[in-house]
Amino acid sequence: MLGNELVRVDAAGLDLAGGFAHARRVGGAGLRALTYGQRAERLGAIAKVLQANRDTYYEISTANSGTTKADSGVDIDGAIYTLGVFAKLGATLPDAPFLPSFLLDGDATALAKGGAFASQHVQVPTRGLALFINAFNFPSWGLWEKAAPALLAGVPVVVKPATATAWLTQRMVRDVVEAGVLPEGALNIVCGSSAGLLDALQPFDVLSFTGSAHTAALLRRHPAVAERSVRVNIEADSVNSALLMLGATPGSPAFELLVKEVAREMTQKSGQKCTAIRRVFVPESLYDAAAEAIGARLAKTTVGNPRNEAVRMGALVSREQLRSVQDGLAQLQGEAQLLFDGRGAAFIDADPAVAACHAPVLLGRRDADSAELLHCTEVFGPVATLMAYRDLAQAEALVERGEGSLACSLYGEDGTEAAAALAGTALNLAASHGRVHVITPDVAALHSGHGNVMPQSLHGGPGRAGGGEELGGLRALNFYHRRAAVQASASVLTRLTPVA
Ligand code: NAP
Q: Which CATH number do you get for residue 225?
């Protein structure tokens, strides 16, 4: 933001193989010696440590990520909230104190007459470690949304944050390790180069990656994944959509809800959210009105130094990201016209020659069918494109041209007929999205936001979004457990009974 050096990051000379072995052997054993309930308590204790150091994290976030206080909160408080939710969910899990941690998976199925010999599926924590390779835009939430279910499952964690924003992740890990709330070796961090990380993975380890589709493709080809069957989860880029249903009119409640949400999604964290709305589809008769209304909202977005109270939108994470947004925008402009361009306004308290600020820009194109890049190019900044549609079938087909996205939001009016149309479209789009967020006037003040990832709901998406699944409440534990069938006599299987 100010162009000054903050910290130095270097992973040179680390004994990765030795460190990983320590995490598996010491950290894994220490975590598995606890019950699910005890591990859930540790998550609550982590949340308290983070809460106690919150002010420092906000300072680091402003200095390093260039985010306003509200945008830092999405990352920092979002993490604390997620830990709290998993602490509560974990407290409901049954434990069998005299057996290793396990979860029952369905009922026993008879394999012999009368059930004297039967098959019971169980889920047991994997005996490896969980390596997280994370993106730069969520140095806090990106760690804890993964670590909460991993630690609850009893699996030790190694996190490798993106170098550009590793500082906040490192500080949090240091604080939690120093507070002694976790067993030794349960939480580990590597800052700096990723070289050698995947080579150090072994068959029972799991890898959870968040970042670009390009890096994801490299990881999928690595021998750890391709030959040693390391289980991998990928959260990649996504060209998410918002869709205003038929029946809305200029200024109607659903219309206003879409306008407000699009402007918010474009500007929150300067558009650097993997779930942010990139494409906006409205009925063709509402194209002009929507362009005007979204533009009017964006015009109120003051851009500049996040330390200045008058600023609503801070900087992008780096000058490199600024160039990437400028390049991506120039590409999209080849297929779209400018509907709103905030780049004429001066930045507040920020030197354009040094800062990584970028004003919001709304692009538009009426003929969405013939566009190519608009449907497949993720510009990771405050940029979105408005497009028109004729009927719902065409609108759904256009949304699907994102080839698999994290989130899609639908905006409709209240009423039985509208609800039926929304439910049908939600199910149609569920096949190509990890989450469909349906907004109607009756939930205007209640809904959790298009781009906010709630720990209770699934996060991930098929196709270009990476094909991954995270969160979704206790479903998140599946990734860190191995499913196995135990075939045995009824008397052995009755011993597999966890108690609440
Ligand atoms: P990136 O360049 O792919 O980097 C992601 C992480 O991978 C960083 O920690 C990076 O380390 C590391 N990395 C780079 N090359 C690697 C390699 N050869 N082997 C192992 N690790 C490697 O992505 P980014 O620019 O940080 O993040 C932006 C992208 O992430 C956007 O496309 C966004 O949509 C996506 N994203 C997705 C989600 C989601 O949940 N789906 C969430 C947030 C962001 P270094 O920093 O040290 O290079």
A: 3.40.605.10
Atom of ligand 1 at shortest range from CA of 214? 3
Q: State pTM to two decimals.
A: 0.95
Say how many Å lie between the first and final Cα of the chain, rounded: 51
Q: Is the CB of 141 within 6 Å of ligand 1?
A: no
Is the C-beta atom of 377 inside 6 A of ligand 1? no
The pLDDT tens digits for 90-102 are 999 988 877 889 9
235 is catalytic: yes
Domain span at 28:
16-236+468-493
Best mutation site among 274, 457, 470 for ligand 1 pocket (most ligand atoms within 8 Å of CB):
274
Cβ–ligand 1 distance for 208 under 6 Å, the answer no
320 among known catalytic residues: no
- 205 falls within a domain: yes
Please work out whether the CB of residue 34 comes within 6 Å of at least one atom of ligand 1. Answer: no
- Determine the pLDDT at residue 326: 97
